[in-house]
Amino acid sequence: MAPKPEETFSPTGVLYENDEVIITEKIPEKSTTTTGKQEIIWSNLIIQIVIHIFALWGLVRIFTSAKLTTTIYGFIIYEISMMGTMAGVHRLWAHRTYKAKLPLKLLLAVFATLAAQKSIIDWARDHRVHHRYSDTDADPHNAKRGFFYAHFGWQFMKKHPEVIKKGTSVDFSDLFADPILSFQHKHYWLLQFTSYLLPAFIPMLLWNETFFNGFCINWLRYELGIHSTFSINSFSHLMGHKPYDKYIGPTENLFVSIISHGEGWHNYHHTFPWDYRAGEKGQWNPALYFINFFAKIGWAYDLKKANAGSVENRLKKTGDGSRQ
């Protein structure tokens, strides 16, 4: 067993191991609210309003005219698309917390495409910038600007100049070097269009559902996935406890963990971003169970996790005392 690395904590809450910075979380400067205006992208706003109308219509259709099979099918598509985002785009590609063999990479890429939450490269790129400049103007969804902006408003506005400027300092070369990610990124708009329509046709073709029911329920599962994911940016940066590091914005939020497949243990995740578990043992974490299953059959390997000593040290030195 390798000797436990020496750990020290800087005044800004950055964790060092053997003088190597392994966490880029910093306490934001005093002024973290934006001083300039960001241009609204009206087309994005209008499109989302329309999609939300269809999604609400889908919710009505579940209780009025849709077949039970269609509802179950929509739930399954929601589940696999969320797993593509959380276990794939987030833990595999954005953070490189584990490695995956080709079959699992392809599976997760298909699942992530169904989620339609940007291309994998764009999603992972924004997320890496978010971690390095969390809760500052360089954060794509800066929670210091309020709940709505962090949750959804950032999608309707052009990126803050600081996001663009500081984003150039983050390395994304590994993402573009991956042929699967490059292909998905290059053809994303066509693939995204397919993810919007193909799941709507399947109920009609296989069990004689109406196209409109399939169409609306597909938008419903899409919006549920979007809001479940974005709740990490909003709820988990504004509400909850900070047992591992009280000096950063992210919090532990059980509600978010339930709806986002285990991603709401956000204070832990921002403290130990390389840990494939994104939380501690015993916490609700479906994305962890998914990865562990594929690790057992050999498709996932080199799973990284924080050692127990590191976690205990953080609890004692920088935690808020909420985790006893």
Automatic annotation (TrEMBL):
One of its GO terms (cellular component) is endoplasmic reticulum membrane. It is found in: Membrane. The chain crosses the membrane at residues 40-60, 72-94, 188-207. Keywords: Fatty acid biosynthesis, Fatty acid metabolism, Iron, Lipid biosynthesis, Lipid metabolism, Membrane, Oxidoreductase, Transmembrane, Transmembrane helix. Residues 82-273 form the Fatty acid desaturase domain. CDD domains: Delta9-FADS-like. Its main location: membrane. Its cofactor is Fe(2+). InterPro entries: Acyl-CoA_DS (IPR015876), FA_desaturase_dom (IPR005804). One of its GO terms (molecular function) is stearoyl-CoA 9-desaturase activity. It is a multi-pass membrane protein. GO terms for biological process: unsaturated fatty acid biosynthetic process. Pfam families: FA_desaturase. Signal peptide: none annotated. Belongs to the fatty acid desaturase type 1 family. The histidine box domains are involved in binding the catalytic metal ions. This is Fatty acid desaturase domain-containing protein. It comes from Ceutorhynchus assimilis.
